[in-house]
Amino acid sequence: xxxxxxxxxxxxxxxxxxxxxxxxxxxxxxxxxxxxxxxxxxxxxxxxxxxxxxxxxxxxxxxxxxxxxxxxxxxxxxxxxxxxxxxxxxxxxxxxxxxxxxxxxxxxxxxxxxxxxxxxxxxxxxxxxxxxxxxxxxxxxxxxxxxxxxxxxxxxxxxxxxxxxxxxxxxxxxx
Length: 175
Known about the structure:
This protein is mainly alpha-helical. The protein is built from ten helices and no strands. The mean pLDDT is about 80.
């Protein structure tokens, strides 16, 4: 079937597609969108239509699959994110009570904990935190890579110990 005949068949079936789409969507605008998507897909895949088969049935199949895929996509999107017209009170409370004063105290505690680290632990830890690889730190500090890993591990443990008040707080908040 050539392009002109294909397009003629497509236009001839447009009214039937509109009626069929409305049965799926129950909304005229959504039905028009579905018809448009169906016609675009039919034109895109016109090479796959086998002459001698039911053209209207082929279009209906495209429409049904397009609707089902869109419906599934909508369900998946809705399950991943919830939409609210208003912000829930719990979120307002969290947003209003979190202030820079708390953050300032946390940062002071982190800096104090880091200042308690001996320089041989602090330097590799900071370099690693900045994104350097173990071998780069080892080369720069002229120490074996195993020593770098050990010192970073020790620094983490000491920081965790010195900041344990926050781990208890955060685990209580997440409940």
